[in-house]
UniProtKB/TrEMBL annotation:
Keyword annotations: Pyridoxal phosphate
Residues of the Tryptophan synthase beta chain-like PALP domain: 9-303
Entries under InterPro entries matching the protein: Cys_Synth/Cystath_Beta-Synth, P-phosphate_BS, TrpB-like_PALP, TrpB-like_PALP_sf
Gene3D superfamilies (alphabetical): 3.40.50.1100
Protein name, as recorded: Cysteine synthase family protein
Needed co-factor(s): pyridoxal 5'-phosphate
CDD domains attached to this UniProt entry: CBS_like (cd01561)
Length: 337
């Protein structure tokens, strides 16, 4: 049975690269999207979850019967819970209140215990960072995945995402754009791509309200951290895996731009992706405008739109959050016949 995989974990990675057409009409550049929702848990974070667990097993930090604990906006949690299910570990996920109901439900479906924390500063004792640290200290056999600082996160993108992009593009890549949550995607891809072609530009698309843009251009926080609706990217602290010195630029994208593009991507390209993917594309379009010669630009689409059906794809939620006007609601969308 040479075509049978040993477990679902072997389907992580090797995601497709797809050319974009309608949403980038008018640009002189070519845009290609790495579609990470093809991973079994539905996001790019499956790669990182599997790597962090396997390296912890090798180092003896995670032993049979152990409990994996993590602070996450959801996607890493799904990856960890998926791997924990296959490998027989318990899993506790600590998640800020803002994250979508679908993500909580998904984690519970995978068998994880979900702890929801209030929206407070990262230093606050009730922040998802600090609550996860407290939980792991209290549980015998507890292991904190620590995706924001664990170098295995960056290493996985250096060893898989970066090489896949390089191979799929036959080396004909001029720029890569992605958002940064932990920074793992950008830091690992930057390292790999620049080793093969130093002129490749690696750019971070940052939500308005994140402090990373200021830290990159001003070395300090100019605009205080603000709230925004896009999930999974942008930060109110500097994660150890955000390696600013490896990036070539930052571009800011607001919620309106991100949610408009989220809807366009499915309507015009058939790509049901989340708002962080749309942020990356809007950022790529904006940042590339200043380049005269046509470029090949790869944009990382981190997760699926399925976990935002109650938000980006819900007209009522869009109206309540000021992202859609009442008169823009499409009749067919919500009408019960
Ligand atoms: N988009 C989404 C939806 C995510 O959940 C994440 C991870 N937080 C990212 C993008 C960013 O990935 P990274 O952690 O590698 O910076």
């Amino acid at each position: 049975m040479s075509h049978v995989l040993d477990s679902i974990l072997e389907t992580v990675g090797e995601t497709p690269m797809v050319a974009l057409h309608n949403v980038v009409k008018g640009s002189k550049h070519k845009f290609f999207a790495k579609i990470e929702y093809f991973n079994p848990g539905g996001s790019i974070k499956d790669r990182v979850a599997v790597k962090i667990i396997e390296e912890a097993e090798k180092r003896g930090e995670l032993k049979p019967g152990g409990t994996i604990v993590e602070a996450t906006s959801g996607n890493t949690g799904v990856g960890l819970a998926l791997a924990a299910a296959v490998k027989g570990y318990k899993c506790i996920i600590v998640m800020p209140q803002k994250m979508s109901e679908e993500k909580r439900a998904l984690l519970r479906a995978y068998g994880a215990q979900v702890v929801i924390t209030p929206m407070v500063d990262p230093d606050h004792p009730m922040s998802h960072y600090n609550v996860s640290k407290r939980i792991v200290a209290e549980i015998p056999g507890g292991f904190l995945a620590n995706q924001f600082f664990n170098p295995d996160n960056v290493a996985q993108h250096y060893q898989t995402t970066g090489p896949e992009v390089w191979k799929q593009m036959d080396g004909k890549i001029d720029m890569l754009v992605a958002g940064a949550g932990t920074g793992g995607t950008l830091s690992g891809c930057a390292q790999y791509l620049k080793e093969h072609k130093p002129s490749v530009k690696v750019v971070c698309a940052d939500p308005v309200g994140s402090i990373l843009y200021d830290l990159y251009y001003h070395k300090k926080i100019v605009d205080p951290p603000g709230s925004y609706k896009v999930e999974g990217i942008g930060e109110d602290m500097l994660p150890g895996n955000v390696h600013l010195e490896k990036y070539d630029g930052f571009v800011r994208v607001n919620d309106q731009e991100a949610f408009d593009m989220t809807r366009r991507l499915v309507a015009e390209e058939g790509l049901l992706v989340g708002p962080s993917s749309a942020t990356a594309l809007v950022g790529a379009i904006k940042f590339s405008e200043k380049f005269e010669t046509p470029l090949n630009i790869v944009v990382v689409f981190a997760d699926s739109g399925r976990q935002y059906l109650s938000k980006a794809f819900n007209d009522q939620w869009m109206v309540e959050n000021g992202l859609l006007k009442e008169e823009q609601i499409k009749d067919s969308f919500n009408r019960v016949i």
